[in-house]
Amino acid sequence: MKVLKVNNISKKFNSEYALKNISFEVEKGEIFGIIGPDGAGKTTLFRILTTLILSDSGNAMIIENDIIKDYKEIRKILGYMPGSFSLYHDLSVEENLEFFASVFNVSIEDNYYLIKDIYSHLQLFKKRRAGNLSGGMKQKLALSCALIHKPEILFLDEPTTGVDPVSRKEFWQMLKRLQNQGITIIVSTPYMDEAKLCDRIALINKGEFIDIDSPEAIISKFPKKLFRVEGDNMPILLKQLRENANIETCYSFGDSCHITLKDEKEGINYKEIKPTIEDYFMRLSE
Question: What is the DSSP track for 247-262?
Answer without folding.
Answer: EEEEEEETTEEEEEES
